Amino acid sequence: MYNMTIEELLDKYPFSLAYFQDNKIEIEGRENLTFNEYLDSLSSEYIEDMAIDKEVLLEGLDLFIQQMNSFLEVEEDKGIYSLSILPGNNKSGEREGFNELTIRKSEIVSIVGPTGSGKSRLLADIEWTAQNDTPTGRTILINGELPDKKWRFSSNNKLVAQLSQNMNFVMDLTVMEFLQLHAESRMVVDIEGTIERIIQQANNLAGEKFQLDTPVTALSGGQSRALMIADTAILSSSPIVLIDEIENAGIDRRKALDLLVSEDKIVLMATHDPTLALIADKRIVIKNGGISEVIDTTKEEKEILHKLEEMDLYIQQMRSDLRKGNILEND
Amino acid sequence: MNLVIFSGPPSSGKTSIILKTIDAMKKRNLKVGVVKFDCLSTDDDILYEKAGIPVKKGLSGALCPDHYFASNIEEVVQWGRKTNLDLLITESAGLCNRCSPYIKEIKGVCVIDNLSGINTPKKIGPMLKAADIVVITKGDIVSQAEREVFASKVNSVNPKAMTMHINGLTGQGAYELSTLLYDKDSSINSVQGMELRYPMPSAMCSYCLGETRIGSDFQMGNVRKIDLGDDYV
Fold it and tell me: Rounded to a whole number, what is the distance in Å from the CA of B16 to chain A's nearest CA?
């Protein structure tokens, strides 16, 4: 790498352009130099002004290229098909009430329990791939094996994506620009096709359709959630999605979960909502900082779910009628 | 004693992260103390006190806060030793985004938040680029996409650092950070003679010396003029 000119570097590793841009390195017209030569050619005044540290930048480029390469490799093998949780202890030091919980790709497990019971700790254990080295003493396995350290330490390969109620878009961009930026940061090859697919899926989830030139900050609550879910399903690098409640307004929650599952995600969902809790085939009950039980959703509960979904539908119908200006009637 | 230097833009969540992290270390029986550096005023010392953490604060007042840090860090280290700390954390706000208080051989942590905008990693200088660990906060209120884009921008200006997402409210991730801060083998007794990772900006102009009047007649020393091009005449 050190012997290559900037031009050769960009040719072999097109993503290195982001490194130059984000570090405000003006390479235009000087692509025939090696990066080392480029740095040596800078005046000491410029170096001081721009707060440049040559060695750090050189070493950084090398690391950046290595990281991006390994990131692209991970993309290709799509490596993760299961997540296992081995029990630890609750806050009182008692052993958790299950033996081993394995969640496979395209499976949904819900998490129930009072606020403050230890959901954050469970999520953190998964994110950090705990190895009996966190306060709960849990162990996390990936594909049935002790996980690679990269899940802890690399910034681009994060194991877990999170979706929660409080999330907002804060960027001042249109839907199109926003998705483009995300796709670029993920080094997607077919950016246009990917964006189209996300929009289509998001519109399929949201009650109200939106356009590509709408600013993300102007989307309604339902539209925002729909876009976040579609984007996480299709563009996020993380194989595991942790959901903290999906509010039942302006979005088809069943379809949202179906989408995540169809994109091969492992889905964990903390919820107080009976419909969501029962959609999952299993639910984790958290008490006093530990998992007290893992329950399989019973046949009877699935029947109850059916009723709940009818009620949800009924409410949604009324909402949409009211919005259209209709007068509600008893059937 | 171990020393760890925290810095980050104002209101990025440094104090919350440090409090949660120290809380996560409680079981390890380590004595942790904090020295907070700020410019005009801070009440964060009260928060630390409330949590039972030995704390001192230093206000730089009319001086550049990072210069003030560099002039006082050795005294602060000696205070930490006298207080029998196992781990001393210093916290300082990077005010002009150019300085960084990090010292070679001493662990440096930069705290930066998702709300600050995706171009912020580009704008922050050595405070972010020279950090060993970058903690990204406020991830619970922005979308997954923004978190990923933000983290990738951080990564491209500092590929060497380990990036962590920590929630300063729930403490999710703070335990993990706490495991990285204390290391028996990196004990120090003094920082005398150690070097800053990056020189601070040099400015010695009339305004540094108290000049208040505007205009070329009153400007001396290290003065630089903005380049507006020729097209405005």
Answer: 16
